[in-house]
Amino acid sequence: MTNQLKFFILILTTTLTSFSCKNETQKKNQTTQTNNTESVAIIGNYVSDGYVNRKHGSDWVSVAVTKLDNDKLNISVRSRADIKKPTCTFDATAQKVDDKTYETQIDGKSVLFLFLKDELSISTKNEADKDLLYFYCSGGASIAGTYQRIDEKLDETQIDKKQFSRVLNLQSIGFNISSVVKDGNNQLTVLTFGLPHDYNEIFDIGNNIIVNAEVEDLNADGSPELVVFAQSQDKSKKITVYAFSVNNQTSMSQVYFQPTEENKKINNGYNGNDEFALVENYLVQRFSIYKNGNKTDKMKQIQYKLVNGEASRRFEIAKISEYDIK
Question: 44-150: which CATH number, 2.40.128, 2.60.120, 3.40.630, 3.30.70?
């Protein structure tokens, strides 16, 4: 064997060995990344430091994280409520940013939820916005901070019983929306502040749970509308809409929304699992279209506009569209 051939074989062997090592390193890195992703358990309950000493009177705050869909989480912050009024109350829907980070918008400002192994950190995206998170607590506290994951249910003898709580503001009018379980049924309370004749009503919503509430001036008359979304707890996950309109900045009355299953213009193919949102001056609904009980690859989207009715305001269909989701 010539020296030139020996040199060539040596170079080839070294190259193959290096390539093999790089592949192994890449595989190990990929495995490590996968394991790190899998080790971050997101869904569950998280608590502040005071929770371990709760039997000795320590105040504490919890964060319950539940899944809405593949890219959204429901974030519910509750605190101890058996000794005094709750110190912190907050509800939000968070959108996935990456495998460990979710985000929600409050008054155009970003709030981040970072999930690491056995802990959750809440903060604003911009440091200058951190005061925003003090609004949801009393006594100078903030929902910002780090919470530790626990593997058991939260202490039901101490925790705030509100299932949903949100305070919204628009055009100098405030809305306090909350729900609790009473006598076996869920009850929705809608309270306004800032009106000469404030609205304070309670609605029996059965087994439905409130999943969101939004406010917008839908008819551009200088007074806001409040829309609350209640979701059924069966497989259909149907949404019931509770809507309210402020009248000339003086009072508020309920707005009629025809249930989807009763509306012949749009109920063909409807099987629940619908989503709602306020987009500009419209209430927008979308849902997958079903045929013969099976989900198809088509979605139906409906835009509703707010109109004046004979007895009260109501939502009227403005546009219906269908599109492929593949």
Answer: 2.40.128
